[in-house]
Amino acid sequence: MKKIIDILIRYYLIFLLIITWQLLSTFNVVPKFLLPSPIDVVNAFIKDFSLIMKHTKYTIIEAFSGLFLGTLFAFILSIIMDRFDFMYKTTMPMLIITQTIPTVAIAPLLVLWFGYGMSSKILLVIITTFFPITVALLDGYRSVDKESLILLKSMGANKLQEYVHVKLPSSLNYFFAGFRISVSYSLIGAVVAEWLGGFYGLGVYMTRVRKSYSFDKMFAVIFFISALSLFLITLVSKLEKYIVKWEEK
């Protein structure tokens, strides 16, 4: 009973919003074709469940492939930028510029250059996910205890050993902070790329139901993407607690 009360207190604003939404739809304050009720949205999700899952498979593949490659690129780039100061000074402004360009402006170019297949979607996910991880890792490297590095150097450690034994372990909290952001960005990047062309994916599904004015299905897939993002962020947080155990001690 106490757990139920805690859940109600924590999420009462969400419950209040859903109840208000249902009342607006029930009493036709807003026409149903513009704002379908929560019940209609749930029914639409159940009705198209198998089709949504089919499209989800492709979006997940694109998002996870891009996230993996973006994370790998972020690790390599962050080490190079940390190791060589001139690389940091010359590369950081370019990285910031890439993040000021809207994703919806880059996506059409990638589709034009690389076609409607998965490669253009994965590339957009890489572009949207590597930056938060790179910046987080750089902050982590710079927060390392200097005395630990001096001790390692006095023992004859090389640069690789500094990263393996001190810098990377000390940067795990920073990494997971950036990784949580990138996980949500990966889904958004994949869906945005699918909007502009493709054969499968949640973005393609959204485009099709929008053109047919099936707004109940549109709302259903929007909430599904949000729920999927929240699930992945929670999963990353659980993984962080499992890996970074010394923070609890």
UniProtKB/TrEMBL annotation:
It comes from the Bacteria. Keywords: Cell membrane, Membrane, Transmembrane, Transmembrane helix, Transport. The keyword Transport applies. It is found in: Cell membrane. Residues 56-234 form the ABC transmembrane type-1 domain. Pfam families: BPD_transp_1 (PF00528). GO terms for biological process: transmembrane transport. Its main location: membrane. The chain crosses the membrane at residues 12-30, 58-80, 92-116, 122-141, 185-206, 218-236. GO terms for cellular component: plasma membrane. InterPro entries: MetI-like (IPR000515), MetI-like_sf (IPR035906). It is a multi-pass membrane protein. The keyword Cell membrane applies. Belongs to the binding-protein-dependent transport system permease family. This is Binding-protein-dependent transport systems inner membrane component. It comes from Streptobacillus moniliformis (strain ATCC 14647 / DSM 12112 / NCTC 10651 / 9901).
